[in-house]
Design goal:
Blueprint: E1 10-11, H1 12-23, H2 26-29, E2 33-41, H3 43-50, H4 52-69, E3 74-79, E4 82-87, H5 91-105, E5 115-123, H6 132-144, E6 154-156, H7 159-173, H8 175-181, E7 184-192, E8 199-210, E9 214-216, H9 218-227
Parallel strand pairs: 1-3, 5-6
Antiparallel strand pairs: 2-4, 2-5, 3-4, 7-8, 8-9
Helix pairs in contact: 3-4, 4-5
């Protein structure tokens, strides 16, 4: 069995193999299984600002806390700053441990904001068995869906996540068409001083009405476009 040299965790290939065996073991299946994808935010910033040694130190720090949090479960390193866990703990306990892990990782630096976020796919005891890689992919989707939500620590996968991702993709793919066809319009809202009741300025509001999906709220399209750096 191969282990990651830096963290001494299983690599993703071996964890998947272990996971496939767990899926056919009724002793594990009857408990329910949580497939957890963990993303260490701002790792790239540490690497770029302080060098690879500092980045490696952070990864070992995170790995040690993940081991402590899920010491009786199965843990692997998926890629540079991503970790994965297969847990037999009750789902509520998994969420509690992720919350505690988030707090512990946050103590790493007083200068940079370092945090860990998680996506979870829960496989119920009576659910039809699929592929480990599929469960981790869905956990990753759940994790990605909260990447820019600063008050969110973890999210459980459900069908609405794929719909959200499709919606975001539609917004990005159709921005050029919307601008060309004049679907995004400007509206001016007066700003009135409460003391004098007089207008002293105007606030510009953007409204997008798409021919296919109808109204797209600024609360939806602005952060979506900011996240892919199409607007600032």
């Amino acid at each position: 069995m191969h282990y990651d040299e830096l963290t001494n965790l299983m690599d993703i290939y071996n964890l998947r193999q272990v996971g496939e065996k767990i899926l056919i073991d009724q002793n594990y299946r009857q408990k329910g299984l949580s497939f957890v994808f963990l993303d260490l935010d701002n790792f790239k910033l540490i690497n770029e600002k302080h060098g690879f040694k500092a980045g490696d130190k952070l990864l070992r720090f995170a790995a040690d806390f993940i081991k402590d949090a899920f010491m009786q479960d199965f843990i692997g390193r998926a890629s540079a700053d991503h970790f994965v866990v297969i847990s037999t703990l009750p789902l509520t306990e998994v969420k509690d441990r992720i919350k505690k892990l988030h707090e512990e990782i946050g103590t790493y630096s007083q200068k940079e904001i370092i945090e860990i976020k998680a996506g979870i796919y829960y496989l119920a005891p009576d659910e039809e068995v699929g592929q480990v890689s599929t469960y981790f992919d869905k956990a990753k989707l759940a994790c990605n869906s909260i990447k820019y939500k600063f008050n969110a620590i973890s999210r459980l996968y459900d069908q609405s996540i794929e719909q959200e991702l499709l919606r975001r993709k539609y917004i990005v793919d159709n921005l050029a068409k919307a601008l060309e066809n004049g679907e995004i319009k400007r509206y001016y809202q007066p700003i009135i001083r409460t003391m004098t009741k007089k207008v002293y300025g105007l606030e510009v509001l953007a409204r997008w009405h798409d021919d296919k999906v109808g109204a797209i709220s600024p609360d939806e399209f602005i952060p979506t476009l900011e996240n892919v750096r199409l607007i600032h």
